[in-house]
Design goal:
The chain is α+β, with helices and mostly antiparallel strands and 249 residues long. The protein has 5 helices and 12 strands.
């Protein structure tokens, strides 16, 4: 019996491999090439997929912006019963300027969960607008404001809050709903624009009687009564405004 050492076995295997290569040199080179090219072909395939996905993403492009909403005319705006909403009002005489029901939807991502109840004035000239805004705030416009939520055909009072004239503090409105006047405020323009309640040819200023925080969606009733004559406000139009406040960043 012949004893084969590990060195002899290795030499024997190597010799057979060399003979096989000598008999079939082309097939041997192809097999070696396949073994060497497999990792590279996988990398090339991955790179091609990456390029293809990038090309598809580039073709899709950014999501187009929605088309602008045309401003509503006076009749269309007056017919709205969902927040945000506006109504033309006169400020020079005492009496009821609001007695209506409306639907409150969820606020948008750019709006705060705070419902502002007040006025909106407008003008093409910013200077005149600011001047008139100051006049309305100085006049005071004492009023009674009441907001009720309609649930199962019954009404429940909503807690209202007003802002002090110096804008430094908020305080609850008494049970009789009386407030001494309005203060400057701001609302979410995005919801107003989406409802067709903004005309880009005009400038606006919002003035607040009261606000209410964290209201549930649903049906509400609003009444507002002015308590005193204000003849200085006779010549300028104004709107009742019910809208969500702007979400400060």
């Amino acid at each position: 019996m012949t004893l084969i050492t590990s060195r002899s076995a290795a030499s024997l295997i190597l010799g057979r491999a060399r003979k096989q290569t000598a008999r079939h040199p082309v097939r041997a080179r192809l097999e070696q090439g396949r073994i060497m090219l497999n990792p590279t072909s996988g990398r090339l395939r991955n790179a091609a997929l990456t390029v293809a996905f990038a090309a598809l993403a580039g073709c899709s492009g950014p999501t187009p912006a929605p088309p602008p909403v045309a401003p509503l005319d006076a009749a269309q705006a007056a017919a709205r019963t969902q927040v945000p909403l506006t109504r033309p009002v006169a400020l020079d005489k005492p009496g009821v300027i609001a007695d209506m029901e409306f639907d409150l939807p969820p606020h948008s991502s750019t709006a705060a969960p705070r419902l502002m109840i007040g006025l909106r004035i407008q003008d093409k000239d910013v200077g005149r607008l600011m001047e008139y805004s100051d006049v309305v705030v100085r006049e005071g416009l004492p009023a009674q404001v009441r907001l009720e939520r309609l649930v199962d055909r019954s009404l429940g009072d909503v807690v209202l809050v007003r802002t002090s004239r110096d804008m430094r503090q908020d305080m609850p409105v008494a049970g009789d709903g009386r407030v001494p006047g309005v203060t400057t405020s701001s609302v979410d323009d995005g919801m107003l624009r989406g409802a067709g309640l903004i005309d880009d040819q005009l400038h606006y200023q919002e003035l607040k009687f009261v606000h209410a925080d964290g209201l549930s969606t649903g049906r509400y009733r609003l009444t507002i009564r002015l308590e005193e004559d204000r003849p200085t406000l006779r010549t300028r139009p104004a709107e009742l405004l019910v809208a969500y406040s702007y979400l400060a960043k």
